[in-house]
Amino acid sequence: MRAILCLTILVLKCDSFQAQTREPQPSPVVLNSPEFEEARQAFEAYVAYGFRQGHFPTYAAAVVVNQDIVYDHYINTDEKRTYALASITKTFTATAVMQLVDAGLISLDDPITRYFPGLRRLHRASLHSKPILIRHLLSHTSGLPDMRYYRDPEWLDQDETGLSMKVPRQIYPAGMHYRYSNHGFMILGELVAQRSGKSLKEYYRQHLFEPMGMRDTWIHDRHSGAFGIWSSLRDMAQYAKIWLNDGKNEHGQQVISPESIARMHAPPLYFPEGQNLPYCGLGWRVRRAGDRVNTFFHVGGANGTMTWIQMFPNYKAAIIYLGNPPEMKNEVMYRIPGMQERLGDVATAVVNQHTALYAYEPSLPSMLVRSRMPGIYISPLTQN
Fold first, then answer.
1. What whole-number distance in Å separates Cα of residue 334 and Cα of residue 323?
2. Is the pLDDT of residue 10 over 60?
């Protein structure tokens, strides 16, 4: 069906990202202000209502500032209980990939077919796509479909791909369009195993969980680079600390290089104009203001799990929650943004700020650019 659409044109890869101009300093922690008490009560009342409505039987949340848990809250659980992280697993896989980049074992600009020749038929000749690169898989710009919604895929089976799963073929050219893809990260998980010579479970344990001090974290038998990690609030706080400390653990060991972190936070596509931009970097959702990263985050959600981790690097602060809704019903999903905002309000009060840490106003294209965007857009696959 032909439609009149207004699209934000995203073109051309961008690997450069200006360094932040001011080194974030430790934030003062305030736990005795009226603002903190008001934010705390509002957050706890909000999640208590969800509990009473049966949205989740257990729930844990925390605010981390300056490498410490400064606020936590539990309903029928504690800091050691583990929860399925669902898609937050992707941030661990992205970290593993960047460790391999740091080690010189791969390059972000390597075509994935260099390591898995059986994936050549992922590309469709009709799309005139350039090769799918590792960076495309990390930023969900490979052109692979989002199988939560796409209903007419053409599959490549395991015998053809040489992987442990079948993979859907492209529906967009690589590097031109964002489309969330679990299969892209499943491929990356197999890449980590191949290039490291370890199983994905073993790699996670040796190179991520142990150096990060994540003692409770484990991997489900059904796992991939897209899902399968289970972790506790205590351990997710440890994870957040790595990202708030330039990639170093509490012993000063560099788990991931600052250069790789900057590349993960860089926009994967060229934006024609605008300074305040939301986008998907390499493994993380990112919002930046000018040349600074305002926040980066990831969500996990499915029947049995709802998880969230969000970093505010300018304040060395993070928020985390873990819950286990029996079913991800609409009434649960509708309340999740409010949960995130209210926990963000607690963090805002803790670091004594008057504007919410998550507050963000994206730039709009100029009227000239917007005037050129309306039109009839036709899918090259369906001609609709």
1. 15
2. no
- How would residue 371 be classed by pLDDT, with cut points 50, 70 and 90? confident
C-alpha–C-alpha distance, residues 311 and 27, integer Å = 14
One-letter identity of residue 194: Q
Model confidence pLDDT, tens digit, residues 263-280: 999 988 766 556 677 899
User: Exposed, middle or buried, 323 (CB in 10 Å: 0-12/13-18/19+)?
Assistant: buried
Q: Residue 301: enclosing H or E segment and its boundaries?
A: strand 292-302
Token digits of residue 332 = 């649960």
Q: For the segment 149-181, what is each residue's pLDDT rounded down to a tens digit?
A: 888 888 999 999 999 999 999 999 999 889 999
Location of each CATH 3.40.710.10 domain in the chain? 25-85+228-370, 87-203
d(CA 309, CA 343): 11
Nearest partner of 19 among 319, 362, 290, 315, judged by Cα: 290
pTM of the model: 0.89
Q: How many helices (H) and strands (E) does the chain have?
A: 11, 16
Pick the CATH number of 87-203 from 2.40.100.10, 3.30.420.40, 1.10.150.20, 3.40.710.10: 3.40.710.10
Closest CA to 208 of 129, 283, 118, 140: 283
Comparing CA positions, the residue from 63, 382, 12, 360 lying closest to residue 236 is 63
Cβ neighbours, 10 Å, residue 231: 28
Q: What pLDDT is recorded for position 8?
A: 35
Q: Which of 11-15, 55-59, 271-275: highest mean pLDDT?
A: 55-59
Query: How long a stretch of residues is the chain?
Result: 384
Q: Which residues, in sequence order, are CB contacts of 357 under 8 Å at separation 6+? A: 295, 312, 315, 317, 344, 347, 348, 351
Cα–Cα distance, 150 to 154 (Å, whole number): 11
CATH class of 25-85+228-370: alpha beta
Residue 327 reports pLDDT greater than 50:
yes
364, pLDDT greater than 80: no
